[in-house]
Specification:
By secondary structure, this protein is an alpha+beta fold. Helix content is about 40%, strand content about 35%. The chain has a six-stranded antiparallel barrel with strand order 4-11-14-13-12-15. It has a four-stranded antiparallel β-sheet with strand order 3-16-21-20, with no helix packed on it. The chain has a four-stranded antiparallel β-sheet with strand order 8-7-5-10, with no helix packed on it. Helix 2 packs antiparallel against helix 4 and helix 3 runs antiparallel to helix 4.
């Protein structure tokens, strides 16, 4: 019994030793396995999120339109003889777009010029008649010593004045002779002789007065002739005016057969072909449509809550789907005084330089209107942002471990980008070797 017990004891010890030996082998094996599967440390470069003032802006949408658009219409009727443009052509102001057949207009111009020349000759003849009538008047006035504007009196006629003086003297002699005849100092024959002289002078006075009346009538006739000649000259001159106007109209009609571009720009529509007859009296008559695109108008709809932040002179930037990587600059030029009652938006127009011609009227644009007062923003290098589809994330490094953090991006300023949500000031973010990073990986800076 005792021997069996000892054997059992030593057997148990042997089993225990074997068991302990087995356990030690498994532990070493596990330690070696864990050591081989430990995650590797990734080398990264980092940067710290900082606060920087950046411009603030209002985001809106808008549509581009041409700065000016005009339909080119004919001013006269005619058959098209020449077309010098096509859709997409760039034309300068004053360029001849279309020429009409000018032969009929040229004939009408020559006829109008001939009528004017004939009427000018009539005017010259009428003016010559005026000069002749004035000369006759001057001669008649000179004979009577009358000046322009003076009223001639018969008693002022020289012959009348002379005869009147002689008659007064004869009357005095006759009265003296009557007294002398009564006193017997002169004979009857002498008295009769003096009375005969007086009577003769009375006849001469009547004749002188008649001559004066004839002279006055001659002056009146000469003056009337002057007035008549002047009226004829005025009538001829008045008739010349409408004829000259006809010449001007005919000259304009010839000029208008060349239809010119009223503005510089691109032809967006052509409605003209050689041989076609066009008339300005035709409804909606036009040969082309020209749009000016060197400067475009951007029509922006501003939400009602932002209208207090809009004013003329503010800078804007815009992007289009045609050039998603490029920003175009402009300036707010016009602000509507009232809201659109249906959409509750304010209509604003900005002017956008388009010297390269990349932007086209009708394009849709996303607009940012820059505000005058900058705001502080969390900024990190743009190389720290990892983009996958519609999501953006960064790796924030803390205690040697990279943690992936989804972020909301904001304004891009040179090589920095605004983080609206997900990173705060002072956070350290990885900016290099992002492809080797995963959430929770250990890093070495």
């Amino acid at each position: 019994m005792l021997k069996r017990t000892y054997l059992g004891f030593f057997g148990l010890i042997a089993v225990a030793v074997v068991g302990l030996s087995g356990c030690g082998s498994n532990a070493n094996s596990a330690t070696t396995s864990n050591s081989n599967s430990a995650p590797a440390t990734v080398d990264v470069t980092t940067a710290q999120a900082v606060i920087k003032p950046i411009p603030t802006y209002i985001e809106a949408t808008g549509n581009l339109a041409s700065d000016a658009q005009t339909d080119v219409a004919p001013a006269v009727s005619g058959k098209i003889a020449e077309v010098n443009f096509d859709i997409g052509s760039y034309v300068n102001q004053g360029d001849v777009l279309v020429r009409l057949d000018a032969r009929d207009a040229a004939i009408r111009l020559e006829q109008a010029k001939a009528q004017v020349e004939q009427q000018r000759k009539a005017v010259g003849q009428a003016e010559a008649s005026v000069d002749q009538a004035i000369a006759t008047l001057r001669q008649t006035q000179a004979r009577l010593g009358v000046r322009d504007g003076e009223t001639f009196q018969i008693k002022e006629f020289s012959q009348v004045k002379t005869v009147t003086a002689q008659l007064e003297l004869a009357e005095k002699e006759l009265r003296r002779s009557e007294r002398l005849l009564e006193s017997g100092d002169i004979s009857r024959s002498i008295y009769d002789q003096r009375r005969s002289q007086r009577d003769a002078l009375l006849g001469q006075l009547d004749e002188a007065r008649s001559n004066a009346a004839v002279a006055i009538k001659a002056i009146d006739t000469a003056r009337s002739a002057v007035d008549t000649a002047r009226a004829a000259a005025a009538s001829a001159g008045a008739a010349l005016g409408p004829l000259e106007a006809q010449v001007s109209a005919a000259e304009k009609a010839v000029t208008d057969t060349a239809i010119r571009a009223p503005i510089s720009g691109f032809v967006s529509e052509r409605v003209a072909d050689v041989g076609e007859y066009i008339s300005p009296n035709t409804p909606n008559a036009k040969v082309a449509t020209i749009v000016r695109t060197s400067t475009l108008r951007l029509k922006i709809d501003i939400p009602e809550q932002a209208i207090g932040k809009i004013a003329s002179g503010q800078g804007i930037s815009l992007q289009t789907s045609a050039y998603p990587e490029r920003n175009f600059a402009g300036t707010v030029a016009r602000v509507s005084p009232s809201l659109n009652l249906t959409a509750r938006t304010l209509n604003v127009e900005a002017e956008v330089p388009n010297s390269e011609g990349l932007l086209k009227p009708g394009q849709f644009a996303t607009v940012r209107i820059v505000q005058s007062k900058p705001e502080p923003a969390v900024m990190i290098p743009v190389t720290a942002v990892k983009t996958a589809g519609d999501t953006n994330s960064v790796f924030v490094i803390k205690d040697g471990i990279a943690r992936e953090q989804f972020v909301q991006l904001g304004l891009l300023e040179n090589d920095l980008i605004q983080i609206k949500q997900g990173v705060i000031e002072g956070d350290v973010v990885a900016v290099g070797n992002l492809a080797a990073l995963t959430d929770g990986v250990m890093v070495r800076q």
